[in-house]
From TrEMBL:
<protein>
    <recommendedName>
        <fullName>Ribonuclease PH</fullName>
        <ecNumber>2.7.7.56</ecNumber>
    </recommendedName>
</protein>
<dbReference type="InterPro" id="IPR036345">
    <property type="entry name" value="ExoRNase_PH_dom2_sf"/>
</dbReference>
<dbReference type="GO" id="GO:0008033">
    <property type="term" value="P:tRNA processing"/>
</dbReference>
<feature type="domain" description="Exoribonuclease phosphorolytic">
    <location>
        <begin position="159"/>
        <end position="223"/>
    </location>
</feature>
<dbReference type="GO" id="GO:0016075">
    <property type="term" value="P:rRNA catabolic process"/>
</dbReference>
<dbReference type="InterPro" id="IPR002381">
    <property type="entry name" value="RNase_PH_bac-type"/>
</dbReference>
<dbReference type="Pfam" id="PF01138">
    <property type="entry name" value="RNase_PH"/>
</dbReference>
<dbReference type="InterPro" id="IPR020568">
    <property type="entry name" value="Ribosomal_Su5_D2-typ_SF"/>
</dbReference>
<keyword id="KW-0698">rRNA processing</keyword>
<dbReference type="InterPro" id="IPR050080">
    <property type="entry name" value="RNase_PH"/>
</dbReference>
<comment type="function">
    <text>Phosphorolytic 3'-5' exoribonuclease that plays an important role in tRNA 3'-end maturation. Removes nucleotide residues following the 3'-CCA terminus of tRNAs; can also add nucleotides to the ends of RNA molecules by using nucleoside diphosphates as substrates, but this may not be physiologically important. Probably plays a role in initiation of 16S rRNA degradation (leading to ribosome degradation) during starvation.</text>
</comment>
<keyword id="KW-0820">tRNA-binding</keyword>
<dbReference type="InterPro" id="IPR027408">
    <property type="entry name" value="PNPase/RNase_PH_dom_sf"/>
</dbReference>
<feature type="binding site">
    <location>
        <begin position="124"/>
        <end position="126"/>
    </location>
    <ligand>
        <name>phosphate</name>
    </ligand>
</feature>
<dbReference type="GO" id="GO:0031125">
    <property type="term" value="P:rRNA 3'-end processing"/>
</dbReference>
<dbReference type="GO" id="GO:0000049">
    <property type="term" value="F:tRNA binding"/>
</dbReference>
<feature type="binding site">
    <location>
        <position position="86"/>
    </location>
    <ligand>
        <name>phosphate</name>
    </ligand>
</feature>
Length: 237
């Protein structure tokens, strides 16, 4: 039995609330159970310096966790003078995941930055961030379209992410912290709405997992991401 009493293939309760940040061109407050993330998309009328003059735009992301997002207070990284390796890794994952479903030349020479700030953490903060970031990005692009800033829609597909793992010998979907901290295998899957695989991160925490178990986790992830994409479609309808 899972600590949450969920069946192996059941997501936590997921919600996607749009337009929660007054000044951002796009925003979404995403909840995966007790993991809550505020995603905001900000438009700049210029690309990064290294991309100027190339006729295309850029999408990037930043990620942070508030000091009391966890059981004990963590020090703000801005006060420590450096960003942790974990933060770097997660924000790069979010950024490159979003770029796979954006037509960058169609953006023009502009940059969209999606900030993902974890308000409360209970496992799966990176996957919740990617799922909510898509909604914020969608609304930012819709804001641009409403002002005739782009000729064609740069958004090519949906993208969502979910964690899967092996807990007490059973492949399960969408791990919360109680499972994540005890799982034999922990994996994150980033998939497009059309079913394409963007990234798989998988780690055996205790004992190696088999190819068959990996395919079981992938099947769970495909089912979970399909449901998340349906929620995205409902949210932006």
């Amino acid at each position: 039995m899972r600590p949450s009493k969920r069946a192996p293939d059941v997501l936590r309760p997921v919600s996607l609330e749009r337009a929660v940040a007054r000044y951002a061109e796009g925003s979404c407050f995403v909840k995966f159970g007790n993991t809550h993330v505020l995603c905001t998309a900000s438009l700049e009328e210029k690309p990064p310096a290294w991309l100027r003059g190339q006729g295309r735009g850029w999408v990037t992301a930043e990620y942070s966790m508030l000091p009391r997002a966890t059981l004990e207070r963590t020090r703000r990284e801005s006060n420590s003078g450096k960003v942790s390796g974990r933060t770097h890794e997660i924000q790069r994952l979010i950024g490159r995941s979003l770029r796979t479903i954006v037509d960058l030349p169609a953006l023009g020479e502009r940059q969209i930055t999606v900030d993902c700030d974890v308000i409360q953490a209970d496992g799966g903060t990176r996957t919740a961030s990617i799922t909510g970031a898509w909604v914020a990005l969608h609304d930012c692009i819709a804001w641009m379209q409403a002002r005739s800033m782009v000729k064609t829609n740069p958004l090519k597909d949906h993208i969502a992410a979910v964690s899967c793992g092996i807990y007490n010998g059973t492949p399960v979907l969408d791990l919360d912290y109680a499972e994540d901290s005890e799982a034999e295998t922990d994996a994150n899957f980033v998939l497009t709405g059309s079913g394409g695989i963007v990234e798989i991160q998988g780690t055996a925490e205790k004992t190696p997992f088999s190819e068959d178990e990996l395919m079981q986790l992938l099947a769970l992830a495909k089912s979970g991401c399909a449901r998340l994409v349906d929620l995205q479609k409902t949210a932006v309808a």
